[in-house]
Amino acid sequence: MLEKFGRTLTRLFLRFMPDAFVFAILLTLLCAAGALICMGSTPLEVITSWYNGFFNLLAFAMQIALIIVTGFSIALSPQVGRLIDAIARRISTPSQVYFLVVAIGMFLSMVSFGWIVITAVFARELAERVKGVHYGFLIACVYFSMNSWVLGLSSTIPLLLNTENNYLIQAGTLDAVIPTSVTLGAGLNIAMMVLMIVAAPVLFFLLRPKQANGMELRDLQTGSSVAREETIEEEARQMRLPYRALSDLLNNSRLLTLIMVGMGVAYIIHHLLTKGVDLDLNIMIFLFLVVGMTLHKTPMQYVISMKRSSRNIADVLYQYPFYAGIMGIMLGTGLGSAIGSWMASLSTANTYPVFAYITGAVVNFAIPSAGGEFAVVGPSVIQAVQEVGAGMPAETVTAMIARASLSVAYGESLSNMLQPFFLLMVLPVMGAGTRIQARDVMGFLVIPTLLFIVVQLLMVVYWPI
After folding, report:
1. Confidence of residue 246 (pLDDT cuts 50, 70, 90)
2. Half-sphere exposure of 231 (CA within 13 A, CB side)
3. Fewest CB within 10 angstroms: 71, 108, 333, 459, which?
4. What is the rounded distance in angstroms from the CA atom of residue 405 to the CA atom of residue 407?
């Protein structure tokens, strides 16, 4: 029944949901129409505002791209591969596989949403070793485990809020950064971590299929063999010249990598000693880069890993300018302020997290990217909270903005489970050489997603600030 419902849901998405880039275009046109109709702006004012905002997220887009590729690079290291192999040898039943994949995936995604690739590689290795694993359900386990990224070290919105001179400050929406101590370190976020780490593996364990019913990995593999991709070490060796050369010596020098890693570690220690655990996008990228260089050992191996990792960032590079253009329309024409005022008229000091959560969940279907979505709705949400909190102490308003921003992030992340957009990060690993499709996966995500939506809404409203 659940699998059949999942296939129906996926067919509806495939029939009615265009590409995310088309959504960005449609949302641009919608915002432009809103500015023309609701704000009385002229077409030239709308187009000018769109252009003025178009390039405001270039630095932010580069930060997101680097978070992704540096995280993937670590996942491609041989050390991570050996760790996956060691764990896989100790698992013997499908139930253990499902529980462990969700649990480990939750921990990995808290470090970086790019690390879902580690979970995918790990899950596929288990599926090859353990009999009776329902492969569609296993992919659902991997995909759902990605939800914890929004709670952890690479959570885009909290890191953005704590980044100096971010675009919200430049636009005058915020006066200063909001430290991660009131977002990632808040009691609400810690409670949400416990919920995800404890409840999600148990829930998927309870919902597990009793039988694979022809859905084991070996049942889904196609007749044609899939060529094994060379390891990074093998590719690096093949790139050497057939004779001794200074260029090869430099390309494969562990000393050069060691020097760079040493400099990086020195700065990270300095950062921790002088600023404490003060995390923003820049320091996370730098940390991932240093860890990746350490694991890959030589400059050439790291270069190869980064090239392979960069296959996944195309959407970020060409879609973010359109998100920035949408933000330009909303800010330049006053549409964002109008939306903020409308939200404030509906919200109260008790209900504003609900509107923020729903906004994050709904708009995510049009903009399936936390950073891009917050660029569009963030200013309006923050302005709404500022209006609701007018007259309150500044510390209280800051805490309310943090709560609303987290609510957007939670809603955005969980609603990903009802669309197959980010499933594209998993299927290249788990679907290679198989006939698996999104429709074989999506149905298993409906019940967990709906349950967690209810629980998260209750938590963002009633958990003490």
Report:
1. very high
2. 10
3. 459
4. 5
The residue ranking higher by pLDDT, 323 or 396, is 396
The answer to whether residue 366 sits within a structural domain is yes
The answer to whether position 275 is within a domain reads yes
Give domain status of residue 365, yes or no.
Answer: yes
Higher pLDDT: 235 or 19? It is 235
pLDDT in tens, 258-298: 999 999 999 999 998 988 776 777 888 899 899 999 999 99
How many domains, in total, are found in the chain? 1
Q: Flag whether 246 is in a domain.
A: no
Range of the domain at 89: 2-237+252-462
Residue 290, token pair as written in the block: 């240093």
- For residue 2, pLDDT beyond 70: no
